[in-house]
Amino acid sequence: MEETDREAVATAVQRVAGMLQRPDQLDKVEQYRRREARKKASVEARLKAAIQSQLDGVRTGLSQLHNALNDVKDIQRSLIDVNKDWRQSINTIENLKDVKDAVVQHSQLAAAVENLKNIFSVPEIVRETQDLTEQGELLQAHRKLMDLECSRDDLMYEQYRMDSKNTHDMNLIHVYFGDMQKLSEELAKQLWMVVQRSLVTVRRDPTLLVSVVRIIEREEKIDRRMLDRKKQTGFIPPGRPKKWKEKMFNILDRTVTTRIEGTQADTRESDKMWLVRHLEIIRKYVLDDLLVAKNLMVQCFPPHYDIFKKLLSMYHQALSTRMQDLASEDLEANEIVSLLTWVLNTYKSTEMMGNSELAPEVDVNSLNPLISQNVIDQLLSKYMSTLTSNIIGWLRKALETDKKDWIKETEPEADQDGYYQTTLAAIVFQMFEQNLQVAAQISEDLKTKVLLLCLQQMNSFLTRYKEEAQLYKEEHLKNRQHPQCYVQYMIAVINNCQTFKESIISLKRKYLKNEMEEGMSSSHANMDVILDTIAKEGCSSLLDEVFMDLEPHLNELMTKKWLTGSNAVDTICVTVEDYFNDFAKIKKPYKKKMTVEAHRRVVVEYIKAIMLKRISFKNGEERKEGAERMIKEADQFRFLFKKLAAGSGEHTEGLCDIIVAIAEVIKLTDPSLLYLEVSTLVSKYPDIRDDHITALLTVRGDASRDMKQTIIETLDQGSSQPNPNYVPIFKEITVPTLSVPKLLK
After folding, report:
1. Are 323 and 370 within 8 A, CB to CB?
2. Which end of the chain offers a freer environment for a tag, N or C, measured as fewer CB atoms within 10 Å?
3. Helices 568-583 & 521-554, crossing angle to 10 degrees?
């Protein structure tokens, strides 16, 4: 208390100090005193009121506690009295058991009396219910069936309450109402027939479907009520729960499955397009059914049935099962493509599940795959394996067909530019194109794999093509009269090589991504090499054909007959020109090379004729005449090949210059200058050998053995500076040596 007083005094001092801070405030001391007195009186009044209120509450509480104590004592005395009375009445309760049984029996009899009318009218109600069911009045029939079931269930429940172990009476009731179970089954059959045809019924008679749904809903409510009573009493009527809602969805599920499976109208034996037709019918049926379900069926079912989503799930599952079954069959390559295209593309496209009329209820992104990735991989693997075998077979067949064309007696067809060709390239690349277009429908990855496969098989095919072209040439050489159009078809083979090149480039540009091309450059280069080899060998075989015809005329060169006025070179030029009229049907890249090669071979054969030493000029007059003839014939060759090479940009006049240079050596009249002329020849054509010089001097006819030896030895000591643009030609020319019999002769 002392401490409290000290705190109060300190607070008061502080408060007074706050009031009396200026001298003028001293005049207001009395005013401050009165104000503080009023505040003190007010606080004291509030304290007194609060204390008084608390005292009143304590007084009231004590009074109530006293009353409660008295009440507890009274209750205790009453409980003692009740306990005494209960102990005295135990025997009396046991004596009332008969009364209890009588009450139960009365209750059962009351129920029997209440249902007596229904019990006696059961046969009549059964007949009426059966008639209504047959007439299609399903709601009314179900109402009467419910009344019968209610009467039976009440009787059985009362019997169960009275004596649950009395199976005899239970069976008696069950047998009496036995026809009712048949009615229930008959009505259920009618309901399931409507459910099976619900997609048709909802368009023709939606009220019938609504009636069926109402009946099922009634049965669901009764099932729930009976299950609740079973929890309380342990009794449930026979046949409950019926679970008609669950059965309805099971029947819808089976109906959907049957509808999907039943769309296959054909087999592979009856129709090669059976799978395409089957998948198209499925697509149409599923889309139509889902549109009907969304627009009409949802109006006939309660919202909590969620009928559209359940049907969507059923169709998806049925389709998945069907696709799995189809995938497990021994499908051909085109059938695998049809199946995968449908599963991966068509199913989620706007033609089916992605249809705008099904949105937003159907979200294609949330649909699970119809078949697993593992199955897809297996199908793709099988497809690639089958396709590989097919492509090999197709290429073999195409080549065999092309080979048959090679022996025809009619010329091959020409393209729009007039170049000979066969249908081989078109057939091969049309086949590749078709397979790539099909693969592109499935996936980009498969398209790339198919392209790689096509190019790989193309590589092997070109090797066989090369071998067959070689065999074609060899067979022709056995009998040059057969086949009649050998030249024309060999030209077509050469042109096919260019067509193959262009088609390969076009195929890669169209179906191959840029980043993939680098990895295939080596394969492409290899095919180009094979095609160039085929074309080169084809051109060579055609030139062989030309020179076989020229052989008799080439043999006349540099002979006595030639010197006295043979027209061998004229015939050679005419023959070459005639052949090249046919060779005009060769495409430019190869025709250009062929013209150059023909020019080179003519010059080589001419020089070979010189080196064969068929003639040795006797005097200067013959040498002059022979040399001038050689120069004239070189000009004829130059003119001919300039004409044949017109527009090609090739300049090969230098080849004929070799003949002119040799003619100048032969034409020389002063033997003392022979070394100088020969050395000039060697400097221009450094690949010329000693035996060539010896043969050339032998043809001149005026060089002694010592002169030949001196010229050769002198030339061997010198060095020549070859022209960097010069293409060696003498290395192909061999000089025959005299055999032993000739030497003896």
Report:
1. yes
2. N
3. 150
Asked if pLDDT for residue 740 goes beyond 50, the answer is no
Is pLDDT of 743 > 60? Answer: no
pTM listed for this prediction? 0.66
Mean pLDDT of 305-319: 91
**Position with higher pLDDT, 101 vs 115:** 101
> Is 80 exceeded by the pLDDT of residue 374?
yes
Contact by Cβ (8 Å): 489, 405: yes
Tokens representing residue 33 in the block: 């005193």
Q: Could you give the C-alpha distances from 92 to 30, 82, 89, 95, 96, in angstroms and in order?
A: 93, 15, 5, 5, 7
- CB-based contact 615:563 (threshold 8 Å): yes
Distance CA 130, CA 122 (A): 12
Spatial CB neighbours of 470, under 8 Å, sequence gap ≥ 6: 537
C-alpha 487/C-alpha 579 separation (Å) is 9
Q: For residue 744, how many C-alpha atoms fall within 13 Å in the half-sphere facing its CB?
A: 3
> Read out DSSP for 41-105?
HHHHHHHHHHHHHHHHHHHHHHHHHHHHHHHHHHHHHHHHHHHHHHHHHHHHHHTTHHHHHHHHH
pLDDT higher than threshold 90 for residue 575: yes
Amino acid at 732: E
Cα first-last separation, the chain: 171
Backbone angles phi, psi at 414, to 5 degrees: -115, 150
CA atoms within 13 A on the CB side of 47: 6
Q: Do residues 690 and 714 touch, judged by C-beta distance below 8 A?
A: no
Give the phi and the psi of residue 177 in degrees, each rounded to 5.
-95, 20
